[in-house]
Each structure stands twice: as C-alpha cells, then as structure tokens.
Amino acid sequence: MLGWKKLNNSIRNMQFDILTIFPESFSYLRQSIIGKAADQGLINIKIHNLRDWATDTHRTVDDKPFGGGAGMLFKVEVIYKALKALGVYPKRDPKTKVILTLASGEIWTQNLVKKFTQEFNRLVIICGRYEGVDYRVNKHLIDYEISIGEYILSGGELPAMAILDSLSRQIPEVLGSEESLKEESFEESMKKEYPQYTRPAQFLTEEGESWDVPEVLLSGDHAKITDWKKDNSI
Questions:
Q1: What is the reported pLDDT for 186?
Q2: Measured between alpha carbons, how far is 111 from 119 in angstroms, rounded to an integer?
Q3: What predicted TM-score, i.e. pTM, was given to this entire model?
Q4: Fold of 2-178
Q5: Contact (CB, 8 A) for 166 and 108
Q6: Distances, alpha carbon 227 to alpha carbons 67, 214, 224, 232, in Å
Q7: Within 13 A of 113's CA, how many CA atoms are on the CB side?
C-alpha cells in the first residue's frame, strides 16, 4: 500500500482509496497540484495494490469468464477481501461510497462532482481492467459505476485520476484561492469559460501576422472587462 501524509482532522478533507493492479501509475499525482494538496493534508490518498488480496502464490486477480468469451475478468473474491480489509463491507458509513470505473457506467459530469463533494467524504475507487469484473462485484459490492466518456480505455487508472482530480479541486485550498474555484468552467449554468490571454499583448508570427489581445482587456476598465467576459462566455 502506498500512502500520503495523514490528515489534520481540523481541515475539511476527502479521503480516497484506490484499488488497482498498477499502483505505480499514480505517481502522476505526486507531480500535480493534487500531490501538493495531499502533502499539505487537504486530502488523503491511499493507493492499494489489488494483488495484496490474492490468495495464490502468483497473486492472481483475474480468470476466464464462464461460458467463454474474450479476455479476463477480475475475480469477485479478491475485490470482496479488499473491501472488507478497508472496512467498507459488509457495512459502511453513509458518507462513504464505492465506485467501479466502467466504460458503460454513468458519465462523470460536474453535477456529479458537486453531488459527491457535498454528500460524501470518502470514496473507494476500483480501477477496472481486462474485459471487466465478475458481475457479482457490480451487484453486491459497489454503489456507482462511473465512466469518464463513451470510449474504451485499457484500464480504470486514468478515470480514477480524473475523478480524484475533479473532486479535489472543489476544496478551495487545493486551488490556492476561492476565486479560482468560482471561475471554473461549467459553473454558472454550465457556461464555457471566457477566452483568456497573457503577455505579450501583441504576438507577431514568423509569417507576418499580428495576433492581438482584445483591447478591452488592456483598458483597466473593470466594468467593461466584466461585461466582455460575460458576453464571451459560451
């Protein structure tokens, strides 16, 4: 099990337990703003190797599907043992939910992000792999099947990171300021963020074109700038 710094209970936080057979793939999180937030005790992230709950010498977590078919399935026994060890089965706190990343699951949206951050404080995310999992996992062990889009990925590690990232950003301290959170895309009637620019105000291409920042943004007139931002939010 890989872990991050334990939380100071006085800080608003969310705990994430990730079940995966590729724990090293989550090293990305240490390089991101999420890693810094975890080191500061704003969130708690624990990465668990699913193979730790395998019962044979080869640490096998998968097997062929009954009735034939391509690929391999995660075994129900391994996931069952993992969830029991994490204390989320057979009973769990109402504010704790278990998610299975699945291509055919409910699409992850900003509305779900808000719901989860408002209602739950601990998530256990099972990273799907192979052709899926034994359906008894879906039926008896999880609360949500979540997909990050209508396409197929090799595994659930990327979706798990996307879910973790989007939820963590809802904690104002993670972004560094509440203003950053207020201006995030998809807030306020799901509008798209207005275009943003930085220096130089005029960029000359090698082909002789001039790509200029809108003059209103350089004017210093805050009322006009606010109106421009509203007008240019799609």
A1: 52
A2: 12
A3: 0.83
A4: Alpha/beta knot (3.40.1280)
A5: yes
A6: 62, 13, 5, 9
A7: 20
H or E element that contains 189? helix 187-190
pLDDT of residue 177: 56
Domain boundaries, the chain: 2-178, 194-231
Question: Is the pLDDT reported for residue 80 higher than 80?
Answer: yes
Does position 191 have pLDDT exceeding 60, yes or no?
A: no
**Residue 179 exposure: Cα atoms within 13 Å on the Cβ side:** 0
Task: List the 122-126 sheet strands across, edge first.
Answer: 2-3, 44-49, 15-20, 122-126, 96-107, 144-147
User: Is a pLDDT exceeding 90 seen at residue 120?
Assistant: yes
Residue 199, both tokens: 């220096």
Pair 41, 8: CB distance under 8 Å: yes
pLDDT, average across residues 120-128: 97
Percent share of the chain, pLDDT over 70? 87
pLDDT class of 174 with cuts at 50, 70, 90: confident
Whole-angstrom distance, CA of residue 76 vs CA of residue 65: 12
- The helix (H) or strand (E) run that includes residue 228 is helix 222-231
DSSP 155: B
